[in-house]
Specification:
Length: about 110
């Protein structure tokens, strides 16, 4: 028996419907295209091959960053105990903006 609360998951379709509610002049297919285009642009910026570090700063929301990791020549597979070499790669990081950060700092008792 699991005591964890169910996770609320939002999808691109939910974002499209929220955009549709904010702007009554849009049709659903237009809102979906706008959301798809936005995520495609953000993805292409994050996958920029020209720069080693990429930063997308969205005021009042947060910062997306892609940073390189260092190689780990002595990593160990915990299942087999075999030492393996892990090459350097890139990883993504999200740093929330002030409004979101302040909300996340509130205790759970204050929110409910």
């Amino acid at each position: 028996m699991s005591l964890r609360k169910p996770v609320k998951t939002y999808t691109k379709k939910d974002i499209s419907h929220a955009l549709l509610e904010k702007n009554e002049f849009l049709k659903l297919y237009e809102a979906e295209e706008l959301v798809d285009d936005l995520f495609e642009i953000i993805r292409s910026f994050l996958m920029d091959q020209e720069s080693e570090v990429v930063r997308i700063e969205i005021r009042n929301f947060g910062v997306f960053e892609v940073k390189p990791t260092k190689a780990k020549p002595k990593a160990r597979n915990p299942r087999t105990n075999v030492v393996v070499h892990v090459p350097p790669r890139k990883k993504t990081h999200f740093k929330p903006g002030k409004i979101l950060k302040d909300y996340l700092k509130e205790s759970l008792a204050e929110i409910e």
